């Protein structure tokens, strides 16, 4: 008797396919324009599979934000992997990573969190909060390194690490939006360069420059 062989189910892999499809669609066309049908088509799964993993499109959006934040944090973590390293050097390394995202030969540097923030901040408080949490995580990582650098190196003028970290976050998110809109990644690269100069200006001229 012939036996029917079926591919073993892998719920985790299916869920990740749905998240990957959601992320890709958000980057391509935004969250509002994305439908459950498109997510299913992109993931190669049925609608039943979608609703097995997510109650609705909003839940898939939440998962996409969380995945993007975790992925980005993992990439940036290269900058502070040496816990005993110079925190100012760590900040320069993070700026190098940011510049690497914006190479002219690459696809436009975009951000799921930034796109979602633009779309849902005034219409969906749950998604807004998830975006805020992701933005705050980025800011806290930068503020932590700024605080450590301030404690280790002489400063040229006093500054609040959290305020400066939010400034860098604003420059980064705004630069991605502008560079994508005018289709000029050089804007993003130059704005990171200016951020680097501003960072160095916070510290005494006697501090070794890392540019």
Structure description:
By secondary structure, this protein is an all-alpha fold. It has a domain at 62-201: Tetracycline Repressor, domain 2. 69% of the residues lie in helices and 0% in strands. The chain is built from 9 helices and no strands. The chain has helices at 11-29, 36-43, 47-53, 57-76, 87-101, 112-120, 125-152, 161-182, 185-201.
Secondary structure topology:
Layout: H1 11-29, H2 36-43, H3 47-53, H4 57-76, H5 87-101, H6 112-120, H7 125-152, H8 161-182, H9 185-201
Helix pairs in contact: 1-2, 1-4, 4-7, 5-7, 5-9, 6-7, 7-8, 8-9
Please describe the structure with a list of short key phrases separated by commas or semicolons.
211 residues, mainly alpha, Tetracycline Repressor, domain 2, 9 helices, 69% helix, disordered N terminus
CATH homologous superfamily name of one domain?
A: Tetracycline Repressor, domain 2
CATH topology name of one domain: Tetracycline Repressor, domain 2
Which sequence of SSEs, written as H and E, runs from N to C?
Answer: HHHHHHHHH
Broad structural category: mainly alpha
What would CATH call the class of one domain?
Mainly Alpha
**CATH architecture heading of one domain:** Orthogonal Bundle
Number of helices: 9
Task: Report the β-strand fraction as a percent range.
Answer: under 5%
Mean pLDDT: 92
Proportion of residues in helical segments: 55-70%
Low-confidence runs (pLDDT<50, min 5 residues)? 1-5
The best one-word shape is: elongated
Q: Mind summarizing the main beta sheet? A: none
What value does the Rg take, in angstroms? 20 Å
Number of strands: 0
């Amino acid at each position: 008797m012939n036996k029917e062989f079926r591919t073993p189910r892998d719920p985790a892999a299916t869920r990740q396919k749905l998240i990957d499809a959601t992320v890709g669609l958000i980057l391509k066309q935004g969250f509002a324009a994305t439908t459950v049908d498109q997510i299913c088509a992109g993931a190669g799964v049925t609608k039943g599979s979608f609703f097995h993993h997510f109650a609705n499109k909003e839940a898939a959006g939440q998962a996409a934000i969380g995945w993007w934040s975790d992925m980005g944090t993992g990439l940036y973590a290269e900058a502070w992997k040496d816990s005993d390293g110079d925190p100012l050097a760590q900040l320069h390394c993070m700026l190098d990573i940011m510049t690497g995202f914006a190479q002219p030969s690459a696809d436009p540097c975009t951000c799921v969190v930034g796109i979602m923030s633009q779309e849902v901040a005034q219409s969906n408080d749950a998604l807004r909060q998830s975006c805020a949490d992701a933005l705050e995580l980025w800011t806290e990582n930068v503020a932590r390194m700024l605080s450590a650098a301030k404690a280790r190196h002489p400063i040229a003028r006093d500054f609040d690490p959290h305020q400066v970290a939010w400034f860098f976050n604003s420059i980064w998110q705004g630069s991605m939006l502008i560079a994508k809109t005018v289709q000029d990644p050089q804007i993003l690269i130059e704005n990171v360069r200016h951020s680097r100069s501003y960072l160095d200006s916070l510290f005494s001229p006697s501090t070794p420059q890392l540019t």
